[in-house]
Amino acid sequence: MPHEILSQTLRSQVDDAKDDFESCLPGFRLTHILNVASGPDLDVVAQILACVKCEQTSISGWTIARRGEVLDQRISLQSISEPRVRSLREQLLRLDLGLRIRLEHRFTRQRPTDVELLR
Question: Which of 16, 55, 88, 97 ranks highest by number of CB atoms within 10 Å?
């Protein structure tokens, strides 16, 4: 098999695995966290919210802290694939609002549900 075909095959397998982390690690949930720094303008927060809502993802947490002339936002997202969250980050950067964005990926252990405890 030529090197290019092998490389493409491996790349697609890695991409597929990235989209399906939760099935590879049962009992864990993948949460993506966008850390966004911007100026103190609340209109920026509204524009970020509009972009996030367009992705139709589950927002599990959103904290905003003002530090001097900077708003630090920590947005936790679930039910979104890694390629989609990277695309969302790129969309936010294209808003041209002077945002600085750092993306984190965090696995957390899910607590067993009541049904699982009864088994």
Answer: 88
Residue 49 corresponds to which amino acid? L
Under 8 Å between Cβ of 51 and 91: yes
pTM (2 d.p.): 0.73
pLDDT (tens digit, 9 = 90+) per residue, 47-101? 999 999 998 888 999 999 999 999 999 999 988 888 999 999 999 999 989 999 9
79 conformational bin, left if phi > 0, alpha if psi -120 to 50, beta if neither: left
CA-to-CA separations, 103 to 26, 31, 54, 107, 109, in angstroms, rounded = 23, 11, 18, 14, 20
Domains, in order of start, for the chain? 28-108 (3.30.70.260)
In 3-state terms, what secondary structure has residue 75? Answer: strand
Tell me the C-alpha to C-alpha distance, in Å, between residue 99 and each of 25, 32, 84: 33, 18, 19
